[in-house]
């Protein structure tokens, strides 16, 4: 998060003695990124955060690649991913490259018996269905339909769901995820032409603190493996922290669309950036208002980026036979565009209710076995006249 946040109790000066009422010390931890050059947070713990008791298991969660090199456009029916009780087991990687994993998940139950920490990647969790609470060692965030939850790498978390009906679209990014630089000034403040501002970004306001000893299982992801590490102190034992590196939430419904007289290009929908892919939000908006505007997008070649669209809600003007929960994959190197008849149908329309999340990756995506289980193999022919 590119701005400062403080929660709980912290001493007036960093790296100085900070004592409990009984005279014992609190223990400081610098939680930083990019060596000592990126965003960081200083947190204060009831116990030393280093007390590893046991490393129980180590197992692979690497995606199983079905198509290493892909030139086929696909439609994946995301809601066909079967709900599973456990959060981590419910996560199915459908598309992957060395920078990111694109994941669908339908977890039924809250994380009860363990804590989870991803050290490989930042996680951007989009809530398509479900409500609940993201609980982390740096504070909690309530979530509901339409929320993006940004969990920076290394944050220890649990997800509590209110019901069993949950659908998540997750991007795991080995590159740090930021808001677009062009919308920030030299000081990091969001500028007037940004489609969202600081008031739209929700920071943790509630801190859960437990001073407990025992056996606490943290499932830690590193290099595509999960390590079951048992700690001697409760992972949520932070009494306070300050800094820039913490989880936050942003609702897609708070994204203010940028519109124009003629068709605006996808970058106006950009919400997050990395140096390996972008994330865009397509939200309900007025169409172009030039008297002879064509509201549907033009055919376009992402000659050097794969395009993934996750359809959330509304009517998808440029596509036939697309429903909520579907993913389209349009690979780099070949053009795609409106389906037959949809460009003509768009003429004269004044607004769209579409809601979708787009991920454009600069490196090609590999298609996994889990993706092929929910794939429409004929989608690539859907631009033919019938
Ligand atoms: Fe496109």
From TrEMBL:
UniProt-annotated binding residues for Fe cation: 300, 306, 336
Residue numbers annotated as active site: 263 (proton acceptor)
Source lineage: Bacteria, Pseudomonadati, Bacteroidota, Flavobacteriia, Flavobacteriales
GO biological processes: L-phenylalanine catabolic process; tyrosine metabolic process
Record: residues binding homogentisate: 336
Gene Ontology MF terms in the entry: homogentisate 1,2-dioxygenase activity; metal ion binding
Family statement drawn from the similarity comment of this UniProt entry: Belongs to the homogentisate dioxygenase family.
GO CC term (a single one): cytoplasm
Protein name: Homogentisate 1,2-dioxygenase
Transmembrane intervals: none
Keywords: Dioxygenase, Iron, Metal-binding, Oxidoreductase
Top-level lineage group: Bacteria
Pfam families linked to this entry: HgmA_C, HgmA_N
Domain Homogentisate 1,2-dioxygenase N-terminal: 50-251
